[in-house]
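Workshop exercise sheet. Pairs work together: one partner reads the sequence aloud, the other fills in the structure field after running the prediction. Swap roles for the next sheet.
Pair: D.N. / O.F.
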Amino acid sequence: MYVVIIGCGRVGRGLAQQLSMNGNDVVVVDKEVSRFQELGPNFDGLTVEGDGTDQDVLTKAGGSKADVFAVVTDDDNTNLMACQIAKRVFKVQNVIARVNDPEKESLYKDAGIDATVCPTTIAVTHLRNSIMHPGLIALMTVNEGGIEINKVEVKGPVIGKALKDVHLPEGAIIAALVRGSKAIVPDSDTILQEGDIAVVVNLAGASGKVEDILTKG
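Structure field:
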């Protein structure tokens, strides 16, 4: 997979390093060439110095052949503009943006950006759940926080039950189970076992009920 990453701050570096280690072709774009030194010796991708909103720079980065554009600077105006160029000029099918200000998340949606990640929203959700629902760990949010993806260690009376007999609230599903070192995509006949970690997709208002059912019965 050919991935162009705009921004070589902490998020961009970490993303570039992991994608590179997984065998992807990665190009990192940043205006500050000194940041590239922090990618480390194990990064075997390419770096391009320049403004991520400059079409010539993005052409040099291989924008026309990119499978994915990940725009992760700490400036929302830059991110939105770079995303729009990726979509409209380079016709990239999968454009993902970091959103720093939650109030601007709707702008990305209106612009047709494929996915957004807002660290502020995730942090707030994680902290709120830690206070209100300590059994849940927030992984991410979707649709401006209206949908949450949480993980929870399954406990109590649901152990030994098939998923079809576990009555989660409306707007909640178990999308995956982590069992030991394996990830499982469950079906209705999957039996919950001691130590299972459930990855749950649920509407924000259902978090409390999800926690109660999966940890208390």
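Discussion prompt: The first helix runs from residue 10 to 21. What would you look at next?
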